[in-house]
Amino acid sequence: MSEIKILHNPRCSKSRETLKLLEEKGIAADVVEYLKAPLSEAELKSLFAKLGLDDVKKMMRVKEAEYKEAGLNGADVTDEQRFAAMAEYPKLLERPVVINGDKARIGRPPEAVLDILG
């Protein structure tokens, strides 16, 4: 089992490009189709820490209809509510995400993941 994982959506071109980039570099990653196996709130919080971001919204697809429908763009929305929404609507998670141990990067652009692969 690989230590490197990719949270992958096969329908997403950036996700496919990132997976191809890993393969070209000879990196065997565990492919996790997060839309079929959604992350829990605890897993999302752990992922947020690994990403090293300063704002939960930076790991979310804020242009998705579900984001607006869930009222997540309000100034009074808490991080807890955002994590709960991503657990309920996994498509809100920005993709792809490559995880290597205690570090993670969003593959936008795909090359952004290379700095955690050593």
TrEMBL record:
Its EC number is 1.20.4.1. InterPro entries: Arsenate_reductase, Arsenate_reductase-like, Thioredoxin-like_sf. Keywords: Oxidoreductase. Pfam families: ArsC. It is an enzyme of class 1 (oxidoreductase). GO terms for molecular function: arsenate reductase (glutaredoxin) activity. The keyword Oxidoreductase applies. It catalyses: [glutaredoxin]-dithiol + arsenate + glutathione + H(+) = glutathionyl-S-S-[glutaredoxin] + arsenite + H2O. CDD domains: ArsC_ArsC. NCBIfam families: arsC (TIGR00014). Belongs to the ArsC family. This is Arsenate reductase. It comes from Alteromonas alba. The lineage of its organism: Bacteria, Pseudomonadati, Pseudomonadota, Gammaproteobacteria, Alteromonadales.
